[in-house]
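Hello Y.,

Per our agreement to keep a running log of every chain we model this quarter, I'm adding this entry. I've kept the format consistent with earlier entries: sequence first, then predicted structure.
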Amino acid sequence: MPIRPENKSRYPADWKARSRFVRFYRARNRCEWCGAENHQPHPVTGSRVVLTAAHVFDHRPDAASLMNLAALCQRCHNRHDAKHRQQSRKERLETENRNNA
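Predicted structure for the entry above:
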């Protein structure tokens, strides 16, 4: 998932190294949940897999310990984050509506 510009400063300075370690060394270039191989067609969706480093237990950007990160394909990452993204979107819209009122 792309990092939202307003959250960029909340990620640790070594985020790229942590992300790379989780995706390519620990997970060995495969989704840690379903096993889909990076840059190959996904076994279920057929789309090209792009691994991301996902926050698993704590969604805060600064909660970037290796125990909180997992290498996930788009399908697993989207499924895992769906509720959190929906709630965040709702909160952003409510804030925008209050500010515009």
